[in-house]
Amino acid sequence: MDAPQPPASKGRLLVVDDQRNMRATTALLLRAEGFTVDEAGAGDEALALLAQRSYDLLLTDLKMEPMDGISLLKKALETSSNLQVIVMTAYGSIETAVEAVRSGSYDYITKPFKDGELVYRVQKALERARLLRTVDTFAGEFKQRHGLSALVGTSPAMRDLTTRISRVATSDATVLIIGESGTGKELVARAVHALSNRNKAPFVPVNCAAITESLLESELFGHARGAFTGAVKARRGLFEEAHGGTLFIDEVTETSGAFQSKLLRALQEHEIRRVGENTSISVDVRVVAASNRDIEKDVADKRFRQDLFYRLAVVTLNVPPLRERLEDVPLLAQHFLERANSRNRHPRRLSAGAIERLMGYSFPGNVRELENLVEQAAALAEADELTADDFPLKKKSGDSGAMPSPVPFASGDLVTLADAVNDAEKKAIQAALERLPDLGRVAEVLGVSTTTLWRKMKRLGLKTSAEPPPEA
Description:
Elements: E1 12-16, H1 20-32, E2 36-40, H2 43-52, E3 57-61, H3 69-79, E4 84-89, H4 94-102, E5 107-110, H5 115-146, H6 156-169, E6 175-178, H7 185-194, E7 203-207, H8 213-221, H9 238-241, E8 246-250, H10 257-269, E9 271-272, E10 281-282, E11 286-291, H11 295-300, H12 306-312, E12 315-318, H13 329-343, E13 349-350, H14 352-359, H15 366-380, E14 385-386, H16 417-435, H17 439-446, H18 450-460
Parallel strand pairs: 1-2, 1-3, 3-4, 4-5, 6-11, 6-12, 7-8, 8-11, 13-14
Antiparallel strand pairs: 9-10
């Protein structure tokens, strides 16, 4: 008869305390709760153990010699950024707690503590560790599988975003993604789908601004044979194509009130009706919508249905503009350069000066603009090393030559969010107009329809010699 197997460990912990009795008592308590626990009596001993094996949680005393708990946790996090740390101290104070948390500690507990309190805090820290491992899986395997390049980044803003994605993905809640053009909203939608239980079914994207109003209803809901001129046979719409999976509706605010009513009914009833038919068809679809506009202002101005907004915004994901996470620029630039190198005959590398130039820029076109800049520099550079001169980022004629400020403020004066967005849009359009020959190509690069581009140019006071599109 086989010997009974020991129960699986709930996690591997490292307890560090220079007081032997305290260390042994704490370790004994945690082992009794099913954790695998190692012990260390000093900081250097703990670092040696951390180098040898992987731990889920470091539980360290604060007052130790010669290496204190704050120094230990800083060095430990250099070894593993996902390691959770709880600092123990008999010298409880707000200042100590703030210092520990600022240094990267997940939690802080004051001696003497109750057994139940310690176990609870350890369990919460391990839950966070499991969540971060899920996010890492998303950041690695799913980025490789689904090309989620715009989600590269380790800034707090991107960590928050990927954490929210991993949490919402496993539910069936409708998601609304808000972000400026070029931030990677579709890639966020693909991440939600890839991490969901629907990932074996289709992910179907549609851009409302790229389809005329008259065709949008047929595109999403399908049509019967003879429903209109040219409908020579019945056609399934994108709702049916996405059955069991995810339908991504981009630029949802670029739709009419009549269409919004039909979309609302489809979301409420989980059924659609093809154009020209009277019978309804049940659909099992998760809807993820996106907008680069201030949708709440559109609701207030009666340009977007309030009931549809609440139906779409069960969970809202805000994709940060690149100017708010400039610390991600080196990682993104290197990522795009490696991708360009895989296609080019002459591999390039980034110089420190090039990185400095890029990090001093505000990127009105966001990640999409950075990608284009890196690919352009890789294609045109004369040397293998890309320098600051390979990234000419001056935008306005008449400027002193300084690059745009990386934050949306001018001369120290605050501006409204609407002003900042308008300024970013204007810079992006001006830059594209300078480089590209016609409005159609500009619209394609900026990810909007020609009509939307023309309207934005009129609103922003931009002039062009090109004729307006017929539908404008």
